[in-house]
């Protein structure tokens, strides 16, 4: 795990939606596979950068979701990016355990249109 | 460009938010780089799969956004995926032109937290 020393200016620039959330893309730092899509609020973004470990906001459970606390499949942060509009985030991670998906698959995007 | 023959069951399974939109991650099929994050509605998803070319919904302009019609930087679809909850999409594309970003950068995620 490696903490990311984001500046106050970088953190303040992030644009949250009307629910106070920002979309997050999580990518395997080694393979380049997109592992999952989820959300963070300002608090879980700060936790993620400080801990060097992915912490999401669960919209369904309405609670902080420290990925892997239940499953063991936690994700160490390797690098963190924000997009040109500052309203979407990309994290490159090291995925522990079987994978990112609750189904046991490595990536949540394991099904393809057209077969 | 290659059309994707999605089934009616696959299309019907996609979950849209309260604005009728689904989040879309666009990834470079050759390099694996995440190029951009945007949105589609049911109509632009069908157009994208039928044309084999990325067609988004512009939330700011509230209109169909056929990527590259203005910039020339269009995106050919190589493969299309949906996640385990069917509420997020991933497209692997061939990026034409300078890149995906309106700034001229190849990817919209060209800035990193912590420098």
Please write out the topology.
The structure is a homodimer of 115-residue chains.
Chain A: H1 8-13, E1 22-28, E2 34-40, H2 42-51, E3 55-58, E4 63-66, E5 75-82, E6 89-95, E7 111-112
Parallel strand pairs in A: 1-6
Antiparallel strand pairs in A: 1-2, 3-4, 5-6
Question: Can you describe this structure?
Answer:
The structure is a homodimer of 115-residue chains. The first copy, chain A, has 115 residues and is of the alpha+beta class. Chain A has a domain at 18-95: Roll (Ubiquitin-like (UB roll)), CATH 3.10.20. In chain A, 14% of the residues lie in helices and 34% in strands. Chain A is built from two helices and seven strands, in the order αββαβββββ. In chain A, the strands form two sheets. The first copy, chain A, has a four-stranded mixed sheet with strand order 2-1-6-5, covered by helices on one side. Chain A has a two-stranded antiparallel ribbon with strand order 3-4. The longest helix of chain A is centred in the middle third of the chain and has 10 residues, at 42-51. The interface between A and B is large, with 35 and 36 residues.
């Amino acid at each position: 795990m490696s903490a990311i020393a984001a500046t106050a200016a970088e953190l303040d620039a992030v644009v949250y939606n009307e629910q106070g959330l920002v979309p997050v893309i999580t990518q395997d730092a080694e393979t380049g596979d997109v592992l999952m899509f989820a959300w963070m609020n300002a608090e879980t973004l700060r936790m993620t950068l400080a801990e060097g470990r992915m912490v999401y906001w669960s919209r369904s459970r309405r609670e902080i979701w420290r990925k892997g606390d239940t499953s063991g499949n936690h994700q160490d942060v390797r690098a963190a990016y924000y997009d040109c509009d500052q309203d979407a985030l990309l994290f490159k991670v090291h995925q522990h355990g079987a994978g990112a998906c609750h189904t046991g698959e490595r990536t949540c995007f394991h099904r393809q249109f057209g077969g």
